[in-house]
User: Fold this.
Amino acid sequence: MQQRVGHQTTTGRGPPSSCSGALFISILGGPGSGKGTVGRWLQDRFNFEHISMGDIMRAEMHRAGSPHADLIRECMREGTLGPKEIGIGLLKARVARDIDHGTTVFVLDGTWPTEPTHECGAFP
Assistant:
């Protein structure tokens, strides 16, 4: 399946079979490019679950007792999303919880561009 994104055509892939039939839509772009705006619009318009990776990482950074807080804080100071392994773990927990509550369509706002999340075994 091909999707037209801006001026580029990308090949989309479905979610892994272990995702209980869930559909994942990834929104990629730099800081301030409108990922969150589009994600919230899709959530409001179609009742999809919008998950902001930046919000997930910031919540972990501010969580009392987080063993990852200092590392995430440093990465964010450098303008990066943070360690992929930490983010994927947090994302897995969030997706698993939402699937348990009946969510079937997820809009992922920001992922690691060198390894698309849906290809790295991220989901339950």
User: Anything to note?
Assistant: Strands lie at 2-5, 8-11, 23-27, 49-52, 105-109. Confidence is low (pLDDT under 50) at residues 1-18, 116-121. Residues 84-100 form the longest helix (17 residues).
